[in-house]
Amino acid sequence: MQIAIDGPAGAGKSTVARLIAERLGFIYIDTGAMYRALTWKALACEIDLQDEEKLYELARSTDIYFAKLADQQKVICDGIDVSEAIRSPLINAHVSVVAAQPRVRNVMVKKQQDMACRANVVMDGRDIGEQVLPEADFKFYITASLDERARRRILEMEKQGFAIDEKSVRQQIEKRDRMDQERELGALKILDDAIVIDTSSLSIDEVLNRMLAVIGET
Description:
This protein is of the alpha/beta class. It has one domain: Rossmann fold (3-Layer(aba) Sandwich). It contains nine helices and eight strands. Helix 1 packs across helix 9, helix 2 (about 30-45) crosses helix 4 (about 90-100) and helix 4 packs parallel to helix 8. The chain has helices at about 15-25, 30-45, 50-60, 90-100, 100-115, 130, 145-160, 165-180, 205-215, and strands at about 1-5, 25-30, 65-70, 70-75, 80, 120-125, 140-145, 195-200. Helix content is about 50%, strand content about 15%.
């Protein structure tokens, strides 16, 4: 089975995707983390993020996968656990530039599709229902107001110990939304066959129960 979850930054899709995967015993594939890992690798290698050719070659040669370590899913990039490093403000500020490169997305989509062929999966991102898993059994679009998404991102960053400027966080999310919606390939959009859930005033448990009810209806 394939469950596709799309939506903008900070809507809560990664959290609920992980919980659904745990509840159903599926593999959780965080595609956003894959682009973050590639961004981390590009910055570490001092690659110009506007150089699509170099980013394309880096995407082809970089091994990104997920592993269970101490009951937690970790993001591994070329053998290095980058789970925490890819959530930094630096990566937040640059990941959309990398994710917007069409040739890079082609490589990453192929990697994601290969993962989905091997097991029952829950996959979240921006273009899962349209580009990565167009034949998914269930498609969800998880969203929330800009204010709520900014509040969640600030809390997340503060818990990680980062000094946060609230205005800057909101501006970053607005910029990310524009880039995600306007990019040439894999743009963020609400598909006709997607079930839309606005999480602005819902708890994680409420969102999870709504989604599981839909999945259990068929």
